[in-house]
Amino acid sequence: xxxxSSSLASSSHLSRRAAAAASPAPPHxxxxxxCRWAGRRAQGVCSVVSPSKPGVAxxxxxxxxxxxxxxxxxxxxxxxxxxxxxDLLKLNNNLKSETIHQMYGTRVAVLAGDFMFAQSSWFLAxxxxxxxxKLISQVIKDFASGEIKQASTLFDCDITxxxxxxxxxxxTASLIAASTxxxxxxxxxxxxxxxxxxxxxxxxxxxxxxVDDILDFTQSAEQLGKPAGSDLAKGNLTAxxxxxxxxxxxxxxxxxxxxxxxxxxATAIELVHRSGGIxxxxxxxxxxxxxxxxxxxxxxxxxxxxxxxxxVKYNLERID
Length: 320
Fold this sequence. Notes:
Order of helices and strands: HHHHHHHHHHHHHHHH
Helix content: over 70%
CATH topology: Farnesyl Diphosphate Synthase
CATH superfamily: Farnesyl Diphosphate Synthase
Number of helices: 16
Largest sheet: none
Strand content: under 5%
Number of strands: 0
């Protein structure tokens, strides 16, 4: 499904603004930002497409959209910071796309992360809204909490679905939820509507993460840009695996061994497919997507509401 033109316009605008976020920094800072920007536009679009007027897309109201664009830029830089940190924590050299630490080394990657953190803090201070400042600051704390939680549950076959969803909220959904609520706050809508926009972002983020975790089993290494089943190989047990563990005792034995035997990873992936774990993960992704659509019922029919609905639909179409 093609995204509405307003989303594409704001996405293109944010691509340029995020790539220029390092100004007035040395030129190589821009290169560092650009090399990991691709595919990180959703959070920024969620920030811009906000109910600045009932029934009007914020991107069509430039004056009213200014705070939303500032949130989007801060969110986009935070998203880039998250990617750099994630690359470093995983130290995954099998990614098809080049990472900053691969191109420039770990020291430069850490410094790039420091720079983006400082830049995003500058954007945040200029929002001059204490509620939004607190909200987006929480995202940084959540990301760190998510990484700690993930590291503490590697190869843990007793991980529950609730554990997985909490980690996914920390690492993915928190940022999107903060983006959508921040946009609503700047739009001056009711507290109830702000809550619904937060829940929309939360449910969209959870659905997005589940879809990503499904694709790790259903797409080829060429499509993924990394080896299929790479999360499982590192002991990161996602929704398809958690569901599969309920039906496949052999899968637990293989994971407990941390794939010590040759071809054990391939066997584990086959068991995930055979168990129906992927099908149940599909259902979970759609359930969260449906909840996100329901969260938008508080809004009047408009172009911006359609844009937000289409983001949910587009995400789910990735696994159709």
